[in-house]
Design a protein that fits this description.
CATH topology: TIM Barrel
Number of domains: 1
Radius of gyration: 21 Å
Structural class: alpha/beta
Helix content: 25-40%
CATH superfamily: Aldolase class I
Distance between the termini: 24 Å
CATH architecture: Alpha-Beta Barrel
Strand content: 5-15%
CATH class: Alpha Beta
Number of strands: 12
């Protein structure tokens, strides 16, 4: 059987990385995900020709699922003026032809990460320094859990009032419904990297005195309300997961113990996976970077809750990814920079580990003669 038709090949190989996995009604052919990567290339939240090229290219990487970058649920929630959005009809319409092209050429499932930047909004792009853009220079006044700036030198955000929290929750719901109309297969709620939902979780950024601040239960309240609203608005057979920062890497901040309580609460609400990252809420963070440095977080969450977990962070080698899945440290791996550097990472991993990947027939002849059955069939006649 050629692995290019509508059927997903059965597990007939030794590689754990290339074994299938089920997330609600979504069956994935392997355990590789293209992680959401901000491109900072939109205009007024609209996707464009850059996104067409980027998404279509990585949808042919060999990963079973591609996640569209952090996508703002309202304009004020964009990290930068160039961030992607899904908050109006134009945003929705701009994504439609891109997704149609992916569906025509790729078998990869498509996920979208819904996000709100909170106090980290109105920033320059990373290649322009990433600092806050003042209102006087064309930026906007961000909002956050408390009137506490991300950096001491910045203008503090406006603290959300009750009406503002309802507005944001409703914006997540509206974006979820737009994602469903677009035929998106899965949603990831962004609760990491110092953006709004993480800001509510961390005592560094959340110093509220109402029911949304103070105790762990209170700090989790708004992120859980948002998750509940997204889950209720998306079809029951389609999965909804969540990315979180497992620790702030700052003493007195959010940590793994609190993360495990958050994950347990999410499990009760039907979360389908936890994508375990870290950091982002404070410039004081001290991160011990190294290959797979965040994998222990995914492992701890999986062991404590039994939830499906996705490991992220400096996962670059095929055998490294295989070991993570085979040892049960995580159920899937997500690659970002590694995919940008090698847009056919999944192909090369399959060749090394003895797996199979989907590829369009135009590319079947690319397989080196020294490799066996990477695409299932490797030759066809010409005239």
């Amino acid at each position: 059987m050629l692995p290019f038709g509508p059927e997903i090949p059965q597990e007939s190989h030794m590689s754990n990385l290339f074994s299938p996995i089920q997330l609600r009604g979504l069956k994935l052919a392997n355990r590789i995900m293209v992680a959401p990567m901000c491109q900072y290339s939109s205009v007024d939240g609209d996707a464009n020709d850059w996104h067409f090229t980027h998404i279509n290219s990585l949808a042919l990487s060999g990963a079973s699922i591609f996640c569209i970058e952090a996508t703002a649920v309202e304009a004020i929630g964009r990290i930068t003026p160039g961030c992607l959005g899904l908050y109006n009809d134009a945003n929705e319409a701009a994504l439609k032809p891109i997704l149609a092209s992916v569906r025509k050429r790729s078998k990869a499932a498509v996920m979208i990460q819904l996000a709100h930047a909170g106090r980290k909004a109105s920033s320059h792009t990373p290649w322009d320094g990433g600092q806050l853009i003042p209102v006087s220079e064309g930026g906007w006044r961000p909002e956050g859990p408390s009137a506490i700036a991300h950096k001491e030198s910045e203008t503090p955000p406006l603290a959300f009032d009750a009406a503002g929290l309802v507005r944001v929750r409703d914006a997540f719901v509206a974006a979820t419904r737009r994602a469903e109309r677009l035929g998106i297969d899965a949603i990831e709620v962004h609760s990491a990297h110092g953006y709004l939902l993480h800001q509510f979780l961390s005592p560094i950024s959340n110093q509220r005195t109402d029911q949304y601040g103070g105790s762990l239960e209170n700090r989790m309240r708004f992120p859980l309300e948002v998750f509940d609203a997204v889950r209720a608005a998306f079809p029951h057979d389609k999965p909804v997961g969540l990315r979180l920062s497992s620790t702030d890497w700052v003493e007195g901040g959010w940590d793994l113990a609190q993360t495990l309580e958050y994950a347990k609460a999410l499990k009760q609400r039907g979360v389908d996976w936890i994508d375990a990252s870290s950091g982002g809420v404070s410039p004081l963070q001290k991160i011990p970077l190294g290959p797979g440095y965040q994998v222990p977080f995914a492992q701890a969450i999986k062991q404590a809750t039994g939830l499906t977990t996705i490991a992220v962070g400096l996962i670059t080698e095929a055998r490294q990814a295989e070991e993570i899945v085979a040892s049960g440290k995580a159920d899937m791996v997500a690659l970002a920079r590694g995919m940008l550097y090698d847009p056919r990472w999944g192909w090369h991993a399959a060749a090394e580990l003895g797996g199979e990947v989907f590829a369009p027939p135009q590319y079947w002849r690319s397989q080196p003669s020294t490799q066996k059955a990477l695409f299932g069939a490797t030759t066809f006649g010409t005239r």
